[in-house]
Design goal:
mainly beta; 5-stranded antiparallel β-sheet; Immunoglobulin-like; 317 residues; globular; 2 domains
């Protein structure tokens, strides 16, 4: 348990258009924090606020409240001498109809470092890929995504837990997405390869239309969890899953940068904000692409190809 150094009430400049009308109260407690954003003039959609990867705990027309655990919402923990600092970003994701532009502000809670504190070590056996200052991971996980899978063999119809992540290091906060994923019996894709589509059309989990496959709720914006139902494709043979990962600015979701899965009797749903599931409408037609720009050159996003496998899907007895 950590003793807080202080509790603070801050008047913050969030954006030129709202700075004189908005204030943010930040209450840092031992294991959680409460953030209250209040504005007195401009009417903005409170559902468009995010604290890291978390949406508001509650809101009214004039007030947005986050009460969250410091281990959630993609908080970053920094050790500096005798202090522990938890940092995050409060972001307003402007909609096309909004008169207030997208803005963000840093949120920091600082605590005394306990004498017996030491960093946790978590090093699952992922397939790891470097891309400049970004490091991508993709791996098979156990049932609750708390560690690596103990086996690469999965019975037909069971769920295959897959986790992908990107280490952001010095980059701006990024949202990780699967743009395309296919299963194949070969480690390298060729024109003659027999393929099973899993995710197509710029982030549409098409396999969820015919199975129990789904995206799991995010724990961090830089991670994505996929529960993939084991399919009949290449039953009993070695299977490789080829994916194209996208690290993208969280505020720039559109119908070509998204994570959508199909819910029975409901339709397509956007993982990161179901309110804007209309971004998934193109999943049954064609989601048109725009040219990707590089994070490494200081712009918006970057793609990376990853291959997971081999794994085997076995017939049930």
């Amino acid at each position: 348990m950590m003793a807080p150094l202080w509790q603070c009430v801050l008047l913050l400049t969030l954006a030129a258009a709202v700075s004189v009308y908005a204030d943010m109260k930040l209450d840092c407690r031992p294991d959680f924090m409460t953030l209250v954003w209040t504005e007195s003039r401009f009417q903005v959609d409170p559902s468009l606020f995010q604290l890291g990867s978390c949406f508001p705990t509650s809101f009214t027309a004039r007030e947005v409240v986050f009460t969250v655990n410091l281990n959630d919402c993609d908080f970053k923990r920094i050790v500096t001498g005798h202090h522990l600092m938890y940092t995050n970003e409060l972001t307003f994701l402007s909609s096309p109809a909004s008169h207030v532009h997208t803005f963000s502000h840093q949120v920091v809670c600082t605590y005394e470092r306990p004498k017996d504190w030491y960093p946790l070590v978590y090093d699952p056996e992922f397939h790891t890929y470097g891309q400049g200052d970004l490091v991508f991971h993709m791996g098979l996980m156990n049932d609750d995504f708390t560690g690596p899978a103990e086996s690469t063999s999965f019975p037909l119809g069971s769920l295959i837990p897959i986790m992908a992540s990107v280490e952001q290091r010095t980059h701006q906060p990024l949202l990780l997405l699967f743009e395309e994923c296919v299963a194949s019996t070969t480690a390298e894709l060729q024109h003659s390869s027999n393929l099973y589509p899993i995710i197509t059309n710029k982030g549409c989990l098409v396999d969820s239309r015919v199975s129990r496959s789904k995206f799991e709720p995010r724990q961090k914006s830089s991670e994505l969890h996929l529960s993939l139902q084991a399919f009949r494709f290449a039953l009993g043979k070695e299977v490789f899953i080829h994916c194209e990962l996208v690290a993208w600015a969280p505020s720039l979701l559109d119908n070509t940068k998204k994570a959508c899965h199909y819910k029975k009797d409901h339709g397509w749903e956007l993982l990161d904000n179901p309110t804007y599931s209309n971004l998934c409408d193109c999943c049954d037609t064609s989601c048109k692409s725009r040219r990707m720009r590089s994070v490494g050159s200081g712009k918006l996003g970057i793609r990376h190809k990853a291959v997971l496998g081999p794994l085997t899907i076995t017939a049930t007895s």
